Structure formats: structure tokens, C-alpha cells
């Protein structure tokens, strides 16, 4: 199985910083078209997201889950089934194993769904997204609106629709 992995804040929705309320969750133009395109190419869609706000007590796990359920329902209304959402609820100083740039969320997804990581795709907006995907063995990595230096090649795009080949 091949997967289109998506970061959440900054890729699926506008990153207002610790988005934890439905009324603050605004989808980014092109996200539904991007998902539908890759689903038509036999990819499944999985979200991999750091949710630092939970660990920092800026919002609760319940707050995250409410927004997550809203997001999944909106995708469904647009004809997109999200296979799963993997999230790290820890703060940056917790030294957990799941927080990107560590690749554990990708490996957990692989173990759960028997994913071909090498032929999967990651779309992120932060260096940590790219590093995690690279360390998981994903070859096709897209970074949106990010020109920071990396020691490996990623594809730089300005909009989600540029990810469609």
C-alpha cells in the first residue's frame, strides 16, 4: 500500500499556532483536490501531526479529538476518506519517540497497515516533517513554502496543487 502522508497544521489547515477549536480550523486551498488526485492513483491518505499544544497544556486531548473529528467529517463530505491520524501529544522537551523529526509515527503506520514507505509521499511545511519522512525511508517529500536548507533533496512547492504530478 502506498500512502500520501500529510502534516496537519500548515498543510491541511492554516497554521494559526496551536489550532484547537473548530472555528479556527480553516482548510488550505487545494487540500481536497490533492487528496482526491492521489486516491485516484491508489494511494491511501494518513495524517501525521505533532500536537505540542496538548503537552504544553494549551488545549486538551479532548479538544484535539473534537477538531480531528470535524476535520475527518469535512474530508468525508468532500469525498476523501482519511485512513488514519497519527499524532504526538508531547511537548518539545519530553524527548518522546513519536515527535517529528523522529520517524516513529511513519513506522507505526507502516506496521499497522503494511505500507510501502519508499513509494509513499510526504507533504509537510516544516523541516521536521521532511526529516521524519526521510528517516522513515520516504523518497518523495514535498515542503510547502519552506526554503530552509536540508542535507537531502526535497521538492519545494508554493501551493498544494503543485504537488499533483
**CATH architecture label:** 3-Layer(aba) Sandwich
**Main sheet record:** 6 strands, parallel
CATH topology: Rossmann fold
CATH fourth-tier homologous superfamily: HAD superfamily/HAD-like
**Helix and strand sequence:** EHEHHEHEHEE
> Mind telling me the CATH class?
Alpha Beta
The parts where pLDDT drops under 50 for at least 5 residues are: none
The secondary-structure class comes to alpha/beta
Number of discrete helical segments: 5
Average pLDDT reading: 97
Shape: globular
Terminal residue distance: 19 Å
Helix fraction, binned, reads 25-40%
| Domain module count | 1
Strands, total number? 6
Strand order of the largest sheet: 3-2-1-4-5-6
In what range is the share of β-strand residues?
15-25%
- Radius of gyration of CA atoms, rounded to a whole number: 15 Å
Amino acid at each position: 500500500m502506498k500512502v500520501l502522508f500529510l502534516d496537519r497544521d500548515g498543510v491541511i489547515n492554516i497554521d494559526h499556532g496551536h489550532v484547537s477549536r473548530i472555528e479556527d480550523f480553516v482548510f488550505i486551498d487545494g487540500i481536497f483536490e490533492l487528496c482526491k488526485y492521489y486516491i485516484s492513483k491508489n494511494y491511501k491518505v494518513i495524517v501525521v501531526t505533532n500536537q505540542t499544544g496538548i503537552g504544553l497544556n494549551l488545549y486538551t486531548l479532548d479538544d484535539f479529538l473534537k477538531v480531528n473529528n470535524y476535520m475527518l467529517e469535512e474530508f468525508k463530505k468532500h469525498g476523501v476518506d482519511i485512513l488514519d491520524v497519527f499524532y504526538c501529544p508531547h511537548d518539545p522537551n519530553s524527548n518522546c519517540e513519536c515527535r517529528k523529526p523522529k520517524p516513529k509515527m511513519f513506522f507505526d503506520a507502516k506496521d499497522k497497515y503494511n505500507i510501502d514507505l519508499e513509494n509513499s509521499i510526504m507533504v509537510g511545511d516544516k523541516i521536521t516533517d521532511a526529516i521524519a519522512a526521510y528517516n522513515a525511508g520516504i523518497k518523495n517529500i514535498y515542503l510547502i513554502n519552506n526554503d530552509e536548507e536540508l542535507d537531502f533533496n526535497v521538492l519545494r512547492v508554493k501551493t498544494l496543487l503543485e504537488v499533483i504530478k
